[in-house]
Amino acid sequence: MENKAKFNLYSIPYFLWVVFFVVAPIVLVLYYSLFDIDGNFSLVNYKNFFTPVYLMMTLNSFWYALLITFFSLLFAYPTAYLLTKTKHKQLWLLLIIVPSWINLLLKAYAFLGIFGTYGAANKFLEAIGIGSKQILFTDFSFIFVSVYIFIPFMILPIFNALNKLNPSFMDAANDLGASTWTTFRRVIFPLTLDGVKSGCQVVFIPALSLFMLTRLISGNRVITLGTAIEQHFLVIQDWGMGSTIAVFLIIFMFLIMALTGARKRGV
Amino acid sequence: MKKKLSPVSSLFLVLIFFILYAPIFFLIFYSFNSGGTMFNFESFTLDWYRELFGDTRLLIIVLNTLVIALLSALISTIIGVIGALFIHSVRKRQTKNTFLSLNSVLIVSPDVIIGASFLILFTMAGIKLGFYSVLLAHIAFSVPIVVLMVLPKLMEMSPTYIDAARDLGASNMGVLTKVILPYITPGIFAGFFMALTYSLDDFAVTFFVTGNGFSTLSVEIYSLARRGVSLNINALSSLLFLFTVILVIGYYFITKRSTKSGGMGVRK
Fold first, then answer.
1. What DSSP letter does each residue of A120-143 carry, written as one string?
2. Model-level pTM greater than 0.90?
């Protein structure tokens, strides 16, 4: 018993952290969402959120996040699958992860050069005879760069799931006469679904709230929930509305987490 | 049973790796361009690096970023280890799960929400935006990562060690410093490194809680990049890339050592 009390005394810094940086911020966001721009208590922000402007923005944000998640998965799954077949798979995996450790801003900045009017991408298009195009500030560039940034986070959980897979399942499926495609569809994919789910979760939620890329790469054409929050907090200084959007983003986040199942962490 | 990859598969992997690394090497390549643009390579020059090292403002920002990263990693490691010890010591399943969920809130929350809510918090608490607000924010979002890196090590440790130490007459303090901490050291180091990289990489949260006059590298690059291409940033990025690679190598060796000492394949 005495030992327990001592541990509690030690834990004070951690409790303080939980109270001040986990509970308090959420409570404050909720509290601020109940005030209009003049500081009066009202539900006007919530009413405003259900106007076409904000609903369209939310829908747009979801659509882009969905596209980003879809394309990440489309390229991440085969990559993860092939990585598990390579000889030094842990080393290759590390090489996939290294770019995710490079500062995000620098990667975005690189694409400003590559996708620019005279950039490498346009040079390539000219060389193969398509001719130069406006690439920067389009939906394509936004989605491409987002997928580029998020794909390591999608590959990692899928790789881990595939890596844990018992190879005798595949042999069994083969022996029972399943084709490669059937084995994949009926055995491999269902068994790695957890990895796919947590991959989708770690891509979809941040994709909903991107704000830096929307400014740099898509030139403010794409407005996500994240951009809207940033705009309200730092530009318009309407913290009430910004908090309201944040509240909805938090709600969406919990819904997505519930949908994709309890996430097993272990990066 | 080992099959070789088919040519198509190899090509696919090569392409993925090419796309992942091309932008980074593209940046580094043009940092040596005397032309001043990212599309027309004129001739080799080190001018941009010279300019970089002559720019005291930028060097101060680099220093700020490093100080913030090291301090926040250090403090969050201490708090995180305490948190992991606490969560591990909780017997009741429900309480444990509550704390685990509270712990992961800041990991799953989007940066924008963390940034915005911290901005409200600091304003309400009367903390001036600048060095301290950024430091506090970085500590705050690094703590749960450290907890998650340390907790598995604690779980993996057999409780018989502690019983043995107790039987041999060790005090609580003795058990902690002589038995538990040495055992979880690899987890602590991994947590520290993760906290360090999270802090170095963070843009969104810092962007919200940094006031005028204080800036970290990410925020500075953002404001430079909004003004357009300048090859200073390229020079900076090659240096940062080098730094990251060194960090990765360090991290690789630490985790390698930890898996070696971490028991015989008990982890699932």
1. HHHHHHHHTTS-----TTSHHHHH
2. no
